[in-house]
Write a structure and sequence with these properties.
Chain lengths: 374, 149
Amino acid sequence: MEREDAWRLTDQLHAGTGKGDPFAAAVRGTRMPMIITDPRQADNPIVYTNNAFLAMSGYDRDEIMGKNCRFLQGPDTDRAAVRQIRDAVTSNRDIAIDVLNYRKDGTSFWNALYLSPVANEAGEVLYFFASQLDVTDRVDAHLRTQQEKEHFEREVARRTRDLSEALAAKTMLVHEVDHRVKNNLQMISSLLALQTRTITDPAARASMESMLSRVEALGTVHRRLYQSNNVERFDVTEFARDLATDLVRGSGREGIRLHFDFEPVEVPVAKAPPIALMMNELVTNALKHAFPDGRPGRLSILVAPDDKYFSIKITDDGVGMPVPVEISGKRSFGKRLTETLARQLNASISWQSANPGTTVHVSLPRESAVSSET
Amino acid sequence: MSDKLRVLLVEDEALILMQLETLLEDAGHVVVGTAMNAADGVALVYETLPELVFIDLRLGDGSSGLDVARAVRDLDGITAVFITANTRQLSGDLEGAAAVIAKPFSGSVLEETVAFLEQCVRNPPPMMAVPHGMILAPAYQASWAQAAG
């Protein structure tokens, strides 16, 4: 086919051969901007453009006919996109790509370019057929979404950082307060221990030692509180082991053997101090009354879950108690403390004969909040 | 008593310092010095060359017991023990210290700890069980195994 024919096929179709060709008429009249280039001529010039392309680009027909399409590029056109188009042309492939193009007046628009080679029966590429579409709105919307997404991600990252910092500050504060509580408890027990040494009256001294033991039981709770990573739950068995070991060793009673029978029981931390004080009373009581005059023996402590409750059983094989001893008809302070703690914990306490010795059975609800706010 | 230990106390809480001092003296040991901040503590380590040093982690004037422990580590033959309410702050090797006692401790734990440390210093390895409120440094424990082997 001659060049003249090619010309006729396109721009000249309105006259001559193409006049009645419905396909040529469609290309001419469509709203889609279209151009045809001739790769067999030097620099692949435009050999046809329809009116829609002229309208979109702002050029007159005689300004662009015979020119390479690169006049559509501008300062912000992506060089990589241009390279992809050039590669497609060189290797006779089709390509669909969004590229930033420029109108005659210098304004830019996003061009959804579709470029495809047109070959004859022998496989020789005669033309490139290019359709374009101004998709500025779509690309802008996409870019806007992209920007919003990036902005949103930055904002999320910033807030996450703020929250992490707040959490770190809070954790530090908790540790600081925990540190102070432990230190203060240590100071209170040091104070009691030092004062106790100066007391010569045996009864007064025994009272001070009971007080010290109660403070130390609270100290054991606080030492245990943050040893696990769980700041909301408290392991009763670990505490019971520490407390009983401490009390027996502290009593200096080498003939007393401790036996533990533990199944894991965790309670809300708010329950830990009253449970600690109650166990302190019960174990101390057993040591004092079940094994008089240096009598050796065995003290077993059982902690086990029981449906919604859990049990603490403290069993001695000592002399056996005729129910808790009451001194001169009045309740002892220890007994009153134990009973009031039981009320706070909604616990029931029973003393049974264990033949030999005595079993104290405490049954406590595991979950419900303690009755008085602590 | 020939077995009495020469002990240095570095603790910035007056009451706790007094309790330690009293308990050690009751157990027949000699408190050769007391300090409430790290600088005084380090100076006393060199001055008194004690056998045993109790060190609070958080000391007066914002100073740290770790500095005292490092001074102790540089000298041979001194056993350091931390007393602290935040055991988490201490690294695995305890800065060369032998053990940590967690606050709050009971009187009986402290008594046992002193008895245990006496064996550590005088007749290692100690025959008694590690007191339950005390954490022994792994490296220190290993040194007995080495000495025994």
